[in-house]
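Work Package 3 (structural annotation) set out to generate three-dimensional models for the target panel prioritized at the project kickoff. During this period the team completed the workflow that converts sequence records into discrete structure tokens, so that structures can be stored uniformly alongside our sequence database. As a representative example, we reproduce one entry of 440 residues exactly as it appears in the project archive.
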Amino acid sequence: MPGSSRKFVLGIAGILLAGGLIGWVYDHAVWGLLVVALIILVWQTRQLLSFNRAVHTRDFAQFRYGEGIWQQMFSRYNYEHERALRAKQEYRRLLKEIRRSTDAMPDGAVILDEDNQIVMCNKAAKHLGGLKRKKDRGQRVDNILRDPKLTELLRSNAFAREIEIPSPVKDEAWLNCRVVPYGANQKLLFLRDITERIRLTRMRRDFVANASHELRSPLTVIGGYLESLSEDPGLEKDWGQPIRRMQQQARRMNSVVSELLELSRLESAGPASKDEAVDVRGLLSAARKSCAGQEDVAEIEVVSETNAQLLAAGNEIESVISNLLSNAVRHTPADGHITLAWSVDKKGAEIVVTDTGEGIPAEQIPRLTERFFRVQRGRARDDGGVGLGLAIVKHVLSRHDAELSVTSDLGKGSEFHCRFPAERIVLEPPVPIVSGGKCG
């Protein structure tokens, strides 16, 4: 017990004892105790009321000096009050510094609480998202920036994920949104203007599509003339081999043009519909059969214990399987093994293509889905690959709310996982497959 409290208790006890002794002298010890206790109660109540009034009026003149418990209480109260004021001033200073620093940022920054309500935002958030510091404080940010993708991002707390949404302020403008953890039970929403990047991407996509369309016609004419020349026996001796080489390169260019057109279509297309139920196991079997019997092709095995179907565009899923299998065949020796697997769990389903080929260096895995990227640039160009297959796979999976992940060990092989969400999976008998896949 502190010294002031001990002194206060001993003082009360001493006064009560004195009152009891005086009452005992007059043969009324109990009355003496009661009278003294009442006097103490009245006095302390008066002090309490005076202290309460001093708290409200800030006039502590009668408690400022002395050594009693009320003076000690005033000293403690005054100390805590001044410390709170200093903390409040420091908080305001830090808040001003945060505002100045965030206002200097070109990106919008919005501090959200655990219920996604706006705590604070900078000036850029006003210009980019139309947010108002005072008016929108306490409002849910997804009630102001109305977009389903943003609502899903805030609900999922996927801090590594980024989304692109139309700007609510400017037509034809786009924002990149990302959420990061911030403080206790808070998060920070970043808004970045990516209108220029989107415009350049569209220009590139349109250019590629237009150029591919323009190249298709002359390539068709060239291929036709080369076909006619290859059938002329008089040219076989001197021109047979060059013509066949030109035909091979013309076919390769036709393949590149076709894949570029497909990429342009996938980039501009929206999410794939869920109207068609695709028998994935049947597509895997058809892809395996298309490669059966070919020379220098590794053994291919289909592994699936489920009849689950995928709500997807069947021709695009067939393209994914064909591209992944072609990639595995090109990079796996004839004595190797390739596995095509289809599995379902509570979280969704997976198409997994596994090979025992040469593997991929870890530093090159993030670049696999880039256009025209080839792991081994010294490899001959007549191996059938043009570096667009995995880019097509990535865009097809994106249209189907799916993700591609790759794991690989050099000299041991690679695994390509295509993960589909649960809402695209149906457990129904498979539909017979009419068309078969292609190999290589």
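Confidence is low (pLDDT under 50) at residues 377-382, 434-438.
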